[in-house]
């Protein structure tokens, strides 16, 4: 039983999976935030160009 507990405490494979999950979530948040900001700027640029074109 003590061997099992020692191996269980020393096992960090679950922590690694959680760390990768947190990194992926952080990357997703950064991508969503940057796309939101850039999307508004690009949309404004297209609106400006569209308004300047003759109809």
Gross morphology is: rod-shaped
Low-confidence sequence ranges: none
Strand content of the residues, in percent? under 5%
Order of helices and strands: HH
Compute the average pLDDT: 86
N- to C-terminal distance:
81 Å
Number of strands: 0
- Count of alpha and pi helical runs: 2
Major sheet attributes:
none
Evaluate the radius of gyration.
24 Å
Helix/strand class: mainly alpha
Q: Give the % helix.
A: over 70%
Organism: Phenylobacterium ferrooxidans
Protein name: Flp family type IVb pilin
Pfam families: Flp_Fap
Keywords: Membrane, Transmembrane, Transmembrane helix
What's a concise summary of this model?
Keywords: Membrane, Transmembrane, Transmembrane helix. This protein has 55 residues and is mostly helical.
